Amino acid sequence: MHDGKGEDQEPNTAGVDRLSELPDNVIHYILSLVSTVDVVRMSILSKRWQRMWYSLPVLCFSDSADFGKSKSTKLCKFVGKCFTLRKNDLLNVTDTTITKVMLSTTYSWSRTCSWLRLVAKSNIKELDLDLPWLRKHRFPLELLCSKSLTHLRLSCVSFPNLHSASLPSLISLSLESLLLDDHAFHNLLLGCCSLEKLLIKYCHHLSNPKVSNSSLKFLEIGSSYAYDFGEMFRVDAINLESFICHGSRICCMSTLASCGKLRNLTFSQSRIKDQWLEDLIFRLPVLESLTLEYCNELRNIKICRSPSFKISMNVRSLVEANVTLSPVGHWKDNFLPVVYDTSWYTNLLYFLSNLDCSKNMDLRVYSEEALIFPDELRRAHDAPLPTVKHLKVTTCRSLMRNTDLQDSLFWALPTLETMRLDLRNRQF
């Protein structure tokens, strides 16, 4: 029983403002996750938050804000007032500088260009613009002459008369649904000497563009069937490590093979041919992963890689897959025994699982041991090639465990109808 003094009673926390007790950096992080409209509205939650939004380093506006009737007019006034109140912060007159601005709207506001010119005078690091209506107006080219910008995303804008750009600190550039010709595109990239990541999607008026940048590491390009690029999309990026290509005609490139540091390669819905892909893979010595999706002109793919090579395929047009499994240094030195360990079989299992898109397969290995999966692995995993009907296996060494090999292959290919085992007395 209680003695009436309330020693065991929980303290009364009614009226305590817990939000105001949070550190500034925590409050800034929370508020940076929502739009500026919501930040202002959230200021009523705490006395301390009432003016906290003035010190946020982010201005974020979009049509998703709910202003009820006359939304365009009210949202325009709100955005304009925010730019007015934070003008000194944009111009670095105060200690609370703004580092990121995002504006996404379908409304045609006459004041937008003046806001963007104010942004161009600032030292922001990130800029994200999605302004479809701005195609009809002159894009403020001052925005493309910023020493501070590190990340830039432009969507649905136009600057066909771009003669020069200067973005020396820019690391990431995203161009989506732009009216952009080859000349403007070339001049824009010339001004991005530190660029590492470039994304180009659905940019109209590009006919034969060239990506030439020695610092570029990641490149993603995409087109729609209505707005294909021309016959040649040239890539000259010696330090490129990852390339992703979406679209029908945009991968007819003759210079991609010069990207000797390329490690990750993806083609999706691209019109590529068997021999072209085979030659490209052969010229990329450090390639680690290959992804092919809906490339319906592929018929017969030849791949010579170790099982640690990561591959993912969804190509239903494929008639036959020819695969040479070659451990590093395997046929270069016949005096060194090859050890087929757990790592080999695990990598092989996942490698073959991603090749299950053709009913015909030709596997080439140095020894039959390479394909005899351990019993414990078979019990723990599903068959990697459940749809392959016809298989040919070629080895360089005499078959000593023919029965074990057949048992392993019938587990790996449960619907197998025909199988042929060949011995080849020379290296592949």
TrEMBL record:
It comes from the Eukaryota. Residues 16-52 form the F-box domain. Transmembrane segments: none annotated. Pfam families: F-box (PF00646), LRR_At5g56370 (PF24758). SUPFAM superfamilies: F-box domain, RNI-like. This is F-box domain-containing protein. The lineage of its organism: Eukaryota, Viridiplantae, Streptophyta, Embryophyta, Tracheophyta.
